[in-house]
Amino acid sequence: MDHLPGSTGPRRNAILPCRSRLLGLTSQPQTAILRAKLAEGAMRPFKIIAAAAVVLAGFVSAAPAQAPAPAYDFTGRTIRLLVGNAAGGVTDTETRLVARHIVKYLPGNPSIVVQNIPGGGGMRLLEFMSQLDPVREPTIAQISSAIPFQARAGALDGLFDPRTTEWIGAFLRSTSICIVGTRSGIATVEDLRQRDATFGALSATGTTTANYAILKRGFGLRITPIYGYDTVGSIALAVARGEIDGACGPYSSYPVTFAPLIESGDLKLLLYMGPERRDDIAAPYAYDFPIVEGQLAFFEAITAAIGFSRPIIAPAGSDPAFVAAMRVAFEQMMVDPDFIAEAATLNIDLRYRSAAELAEMTAALYATPEELVAEIRAFLFE
Amino acid sequence: MIPDGFRFPRPTREDLPRLARLAFDVGAIHCAKCRDYHLTWPYLRSMGLNGAGPEYNLRLHVELLGRAAAGRTDPRWLLTGSADAGVLAAVEAAIAAMPPANHAITVVDRCPTPLALCRDHAASTGLQVETILADLMAFEPAAPFDVVLGHQVVLFFRDEDRPALYRRMATWLAPRGRLCLTVADTTPAAAGASEYHAVINRWRIAQIRADVATGAVDLPEDTETFIGRMTGRLERINGDRVFGLDHFIGQLEDAGLSIVEATPMPDEYPELTITRAGRNRHMIIAERREA
Question: DSSP assignment of A50-116, as one string?
């Protein structure tokens, strides 16, 4: 592989220009709610200090102050929270966490029912949602982080438009870890530059696949994605059995899905990736690797494209009062100590992004040059 | 003989050019003895040069598999061995013709390459498929299956090992579950296997060269290297040994199975006499004989 001339090791400067965009950082301080909670001592610092810091990082970049919640009568209503992944998986677990806690902030004591609509990398969910009457059937959905880019690339056939959807917020810091199977014979990242390997993924259009594109094209790792697994857990088992060589998955899946197989000697932690460096993962940070010469623009564009970590949306055409109330509830949930504590026990790494911030990211996505979008699309989907 | 320019149809929902490329990538990583077979098979199907896949008798597969799974609630399918995603696609076609139900499909193979192709096909069609890397002689399913399908899988076992395989397969069946095996009768009466392979390979080589010349196919390697793989690809475990339908049925019965039906899979392309001579196939449907 051709790397940048003279690069013999980590070359972090190569990616610095994109970091601020990945983080979505601006200089607008916010939010009163978190500060007030911290001042009240309502949060248990010894348990949630790391999570609070992450949440705070998100609030630093957040949107203009929310308007007071308009009246929306949730009384007697059942709100659907759709998720495009199978029940029992990591994403499903995260979504159910949101369902359990956001409901506390919806006036009128409504019910929230999580509905799994797996398949097609989120396409089935979008198809289902497109057939709803969003006013009569108030619905929110947790969509894949890669969906906005798919829409930008024209791959969704009008099923979803991030410019017209009603963003509610996003809640996850998108750290991913990558593991390899002991049977694969791969021990180091360098091995993956020297030989080909198969890595599992849920779908050809998901975040994991975009991560493989980053590793493959940005860093020169010789990964062939194998699509079609239903959960990260089934991918991990396939790696352990030797059916595929490795996998990447959300960090939140580490304790339950990967750690036992690492402890048993079936898997090995290879690297981690995501917009922020972490001290608590004992593996190389992918974004320290030298970027393959000529791939910086591709790298920046694709990392930005998948930055919508675990976004929650309401369909375009939803009742504005419903949308506003959901946004306020989402923001309140993100600083709820019980939510933060339960997220910590599930190893879910919180990072708040407001609706306004997601809208800004959408605008940036649509400002990406067409030729770069076409290049990413070809790499991911064709 | 095979008419000039003839191509077998490709009636399944598979994206065969894509799967062929994937097979080449994955097979180069994971295959050992089976490499030439797995690298070329999907390309041959993609080019319409393979008359041995389940699509060759797709309508009959749909009918027979539909019968085997009839009356089941949320059928559980086990596909034992698969050259690529072709058998899965045949099951998919059978499922599409059945009343709506939640079908659970498991594919088991000793090689990762066909499993990767099944995964990829499932991802593109929304099928829920589990893949398990295991040798059939060591496979221990967690739960029994309503239909266990083996499309030509017995080809890859020595005849003396087949009774043990059938006994294992019998244990994988749920109550009233059905074992569906396609087998080829290689008795002299069915005859012509060697002649079949020689003739069909000559035809394939000519078509491959023509397709490369016209740009109809983009092979991932030099044409003659690919042709070399294709002609040497088959793992002929049983050599020229002769096995008639009665032989298979006898082995299955000895393994504790009762034969429900043994249906000839007739040639859907009567103009291709050479293929009929070489592949006199049956699907045997059996169930476990209760003690």
Answer: HHHHHHHHHHHT-PSPPPPPPP---TT-EEEEEESS-TTSHHHHHHHHHHHHHGGGSTT--EEEEEE
Measure CB to CB from residue A120 to each of B29, B115, B126 and give the nearest one.
B126
User: What range does the domain containing A369 cover?
Assistant: 32-174+306-381
A169 shares a domain with A39: yes
Chain A residues in contact with B134 by the CB 8 A cut-off are 241
**Between B119, B128, B134, which is nearest A227 by CB?**
B119
Taking an 8 Å cut-off on Cβ atoms, the answer to whether A229 and B119 are in contact is yes
Alpha helices in chain B (DSSP H): 16-30, 35-46, 58-69, 86-96, 112-125, 162-171, 193-214, 223-231, 245-254, 273-278
What distance in Å separates the CA atoms of residue A358 and residue B187, rounded to the nearest whole number? 69
The answer to whether residues A350 and A97 touch, using CB atoms and an 8 Å cutoff, is no
* Residues A70 and A126 both lie in one domain: yes
Q: Do residues A289 and A370 both lie within one domain?
A: no
Taking phi over 0 as left and psi of -120 to 50 as alpha, with beta for the rest, A109 belongs to left
Give yes or no: residues A324 and A293 share one domain: no
Chain A contact for B29 (CB, 8 A cutoff): yes
Beta bridge partners of A249: A177
Residues A38 and A163 in one domain: yes
Give B223 to chain A, closest Cα distance, Å. Answer: 23
Per-residue pLDDT of chain A (382 residues; tens, 9 = 90+): 333 333 333 333 222 223 333 333 332 333 333 333 333 333 333 233 333 333 434 443 334 445 554 589 999 999 999 999 888 888 899 999 999 999 999 999 899 999 999 877 788 899 999 999 999 999 999 998 888 988 998 888 789 999 999 999 999 887 899 999 999 999 999 999 999 999 999 877 677 888 898 899 899 999 999 988 888 899 999 999 999 999 998 887 888 889 999 999 999 999 999 878 888 899 999 989 999 988 888 888 888 877 888 899 999 999 999 999 999 999 999 999 999 999 988 888 898 999 999 999 999 999 999 998 988 888 776 6
